[in-house]
Amino acid sequence: MDTEELKLNIPLEQQRQTVKGAARILGMNRTTFIRNYLQTGKVSKSVYDQGKEYIDLLELVRVFGAEKVLSGVRDLVHDGRNELRATGSDVSEHVRTHSESAIELKVENASLKAEIQGLKNLLEERQARIQEKESLLQKQQENLTRMQYLLEDKQKVKVTTEKHSSFLAKLKHLFS
């Protein structure tokens, strides 16, 4: 999900985290974060105009969930170690005061959107399964109808064969 689309009430560059900032939000060592999440591709980095790499807050929400990211952001805000800017500079008092609630709402919104998308995907999968089962049921119905025709034809042949056998027996009796 594009961060610009969410229109967080904090400047876009503050939504961009350095590797160190992302690791601190998650409460883990920078090296561990790189080894376990960046190098494995579980978390992706982006590049903005100046060619600098960053990790978007919403990418962290996607991977770790809203609660963990919000908790980490709150801890950093309350501890005075807030590194919401990709440049690593201090966040102004205005941003500190308003960003926590804005981030919380936007992260919750992103989490709900992800949940809705998951439910939509589940619904699509179930609808596809229903269509497959309906198709299978229709084929089985067609096979049943064919089998009924075959049984009717077999019964007609049996009756016809019995009539012919009876007729042949009478002829045989007449000529014997």
What is the string of helix and strand elements?
A: HHEHHEEHHH
- Biggest β-sheet: strands ordered side by side in the sheet: 1-3-2
Termini separation comes to 96 Å
Q: How many strands?
A: 3
Taking the sheet with the most strands, its summary is:
3 strands, antiparallel
- Beta-strand residue fraction: under 5%
Task: Determine the mean pLDDT.
Answer: 77
Residue stretches low in confidence (pLDDT < 50, at least 5 long) are: 1-10, 81-96
Helix content: over 70%
Total helical segments: 7
Features:
176 residues; mainly alpha; three-stranded antiparallel beta sheet; rod-shaped; disordered N terminus
Describe the structure.
The protein has a domain at 3-118. A hairpin with a 5-residue loop joins strand 2 (46-47) and strand 3. Helix content is 74%, strand content 5%. Residues 1-10 and 81-96 have low confidence and may be disordered. It is built from seven helices and three strands. It is rod-shaped, with a radius of gyration of 35 Å. Helix 6 runs antiparallel to helix 7. The chain is mostly helical and 176 residues long. It has a three-stranded antiparallel β-sheet with strand order 1-3-2.
How does the SSE layout of this entry go?
Layout: H1 3-6, H2 12-15, E1 16-17, H3 19-26, H4 30-38, E2 46-47, E3 53-56, H5 57-64, H6 66-79, H7 93-175
Antiparallel strand pairs: 1-3, 2-3
Helix pairs in contact: 3-4, 5-6, 6-7
